Structures are given as structure tokens and as C-alpha cells.
Amino acid sequence: MKLFSLISGGKDSIYSILCARRLGHEVVLLGHMIPKDSNTHELDSYMFQTIGHNAIKSISECLEIPLIERTISGFPSSTQSLTYTPDSLDEVEDLYSLVEEALKVNDGIEGVLTGAICSRYQLERVKNVCSRHRLESVSPLWERNQSELLADMIKDKMEAIIIKTCSLGLNESHLGKTISELYEEFIKMKDKFGFNVCGEGGEYESLVLDCTMYKKRIVIEEHEKIYHSKDPYAPTILYVPKKWRLESKE
């Protein structure tokens, strides 16, 4: 099946491409939602990761898959139910428009690929958009055991760094570290207080700098750390890439 892949730059959306390929699918186009203001790195969205948005075009280049982007103009207005009814004010309609644009770029697209793991809220909204466009919704990571899934990502040589923390047990020292470096600590936090190892509770966000699918690797040369929220127990801290280069892997 030819797929349009929704990517955030994080480990889940990128790993879903690898899994989809193993299932025999072909990812022909990437899609990404961006904030109106390019200087905004953290948006109050129930659907989209915005931290790391400035590196998405480089990820497209590394994957050698074309990319389309669309601005997030809506907001989470229909959040009371897991099911979704089209609402012109909701950010989901921006996703609908992105998929509509994707079909104009490549009318051979048969499905939409996501890295959803356990967010029923997000999955149902993607399915709603797909059904309205008569496309399949493909989520190969859905309901995977998070500890096993993260271990598989590491085994498959995915170099993903933490670019946002928002959880008890996480602080500034975790930013910029890889999932491989933090795996054992994440497992201990899961056993201690129910930490979601893959960050499905919003504990953290990531950015994939390298993986087996990349033709080049991303090397961050400069970054900025921003305290978005100074909660004493679970501060929201951002790691914003400011300058990077693409390094050949040959």
C-alpha cells in the first residue's frame, strides 16, 4: 500500500515508517503540521508535537522522501469525547486539509501512516480524517508494549534524543540524551511510579537524529534550553535545535 506518513520528527512516527516498510508498504510522502509562528516551539495541542518542527525538512532530506507541511490554525475544541465529529474550529480539520493536499500531490496514496501507540483520542481523529478521504489508517505500533517497543527501537539503531521533558523524575539533565542512554532509567521510573516508557503520557518528546533509513545523519551543533513551565515537580523544559548539519554516512 502507498502511504502518506504523518511525522513529528520523534521516534514513534519515524519508527512507524520502518515497521510499515517491513510490512510491505511504501511511504511515498511525508506530512507535518507546523505552528503559525516559526518561533513557537511548544503549542497547546492534543494532536501534534511542535518541538523540533524546525528540523523536519532535514529529516525529509535524510529519508529522501518528499515533505508537505501545513500550518496549525485550529485548536483542541472537541475534547470531551474520544470520538470526533467534524468541527471547523478544531485542529483536526487542519489535518484533514493536509491529507487533502497530499492527495493532490500524489493521487496514488492509499492510506495514512501514524506512530500512534496508545492514544485513542488521536487515533480516532486520524481514522475520522481517513474515512472522510476514503483512505486506510495504518498504525503498526498500536498497543505495543512500551518497554519492548523502546527496546526494539534501540535494537534497530534508532538514535533519538530527548528534546522535551514534562514529568516527575525528568529534568534538564535528561535533555539531549538518547533513548539508549536513558532506557534503564525509564524502566526504573516505570516500576517506581508508572512512568510511560515511550512517553505516551506526555512525559517527554524526542527527535530522531539517525536511523538505518537515513541517508545522512543530523549533527546538532547549537541548541537552546527553554523553561516553558517551572513546575517544581514536573517542569516543562525544551531542547531547541538552533544549528545543525547533515553528515554523510558513506
From TrEMBL:
Domain Diphthamide synthase span(s) in chain numbering: 1-230
UniProt GO molecular function: ATP binding; diphthine-ammonia ligase activity
Biological source species: Theileria orientalis strain Shintoku
Domain of life the protein comes from: Eukaryota
Biochemical pathway: Protein modification; peptidyl-diphthamide biosynthesis
Enzyme class, broadest EC rank: ligase
UniProt catalytic activity: diphthine-[translation elongation factor 2] + NH4(+) + ATP = diphthamide-[translation elongation factor 2] + AMP + diphosphate + H(+)
Keyword annotations: ATP-binding, Ligase, Nucleotide-binding
Biological process terms in GO annotation: protein histidyl modification to diphthamide
Keyword RNA-binding: no
Name of the protein in question: Diphthine--ammonia ligase
Pfam families: Diphthami_syn_2
EC number in record: 6.3.1.14
